[in-house]
Amino acid sequence: MAVPLTDRFANTQRDNPPARGQAFFWDTDTKGFGLRTTERGVQAWVLQYRRHGRTVRLSIGNRPEWSARQARTRAQELKRINDVGEDPAGVRPHAKGTRRVSDLIDAYLAATLHLRRAGTQAGIVRRFRTWVLPELGKLGLAELDVKKAQALHRKVAEKNGGGMAGANHTIKSLSAMCNWGLK
Are residues 57 and 123 in the same domain? Predict the structure, then answer.
């Protein structure tokens, strides 16, 4: 059933839960955004999307902790992640102790930067601070893959007016760091 999802609507459904199982209500404005209500009146905001030909349903948050507005905003963010080819279900907080790309960047720069000329050092640091850290720094090392590097390359090229030199240098620095990390 498609309806405009609001907190008021969610309250009416919590007070009239389904007799068995769960019921889903889908938003008329944001495609894939919905409200799940169980037979016990427990509610959660969900996002349903397609990934590699399969339907995926992701829980956003429970009601009333999440308002309809907050959940809709989060659903729209997750939809954008899916639209660029990444899996929204993979965007989760990391476990304690997990090494991140930012940790590898720090270790790499501390160990190798002094081996470069001053002008080269400045360029490497600028590329990591401007592009790699904001885009990939929060990822766990296991999450860094070719697709994310390609997406970074495209973004750097677009921001530089289609110039490939800066994008190529950024990927070269990223590659050198990864190779160093593997050793």
Answer: no
Q: Buried (b) or exposed (e) across 57-67, using 16+ Cβ within 10 A?
A: ebebeebeebe
Residue 22, both tokens: 């769960």
pLDDT tens-digit readout, 104-120: 998 888 888 888 898 89
**Residue position matching structure tokens 């490497």:** 124
Residue range of the domain that includes 147: 101-182
- Transcribe 89-125 into DSSP letters: GG--PPPTT--BHHHHHHHHHHHHGGGS-HHHHHHHH
d(C-alpha 32, C-alpha 46), whole Å: 8
In a domain, 52, yes or no: yes
Q: Do residues 7 and 86 both lie within one domain? A: yes
pLDDT digits (tens, 9 = 90+) for 145-174: 999 999 999 999 999 887 899 999 999 999
Question: What is the pairing mode between strands 54-62 and 2-3?
Answer: unpaired
pTM for this model (two decimals): 0.49
Q: Would 96 be classed as within a structural domain? A: no
Burial class for 52, CB neighbours closer than 10 Å (0-12, 13-18, 19+): exposed
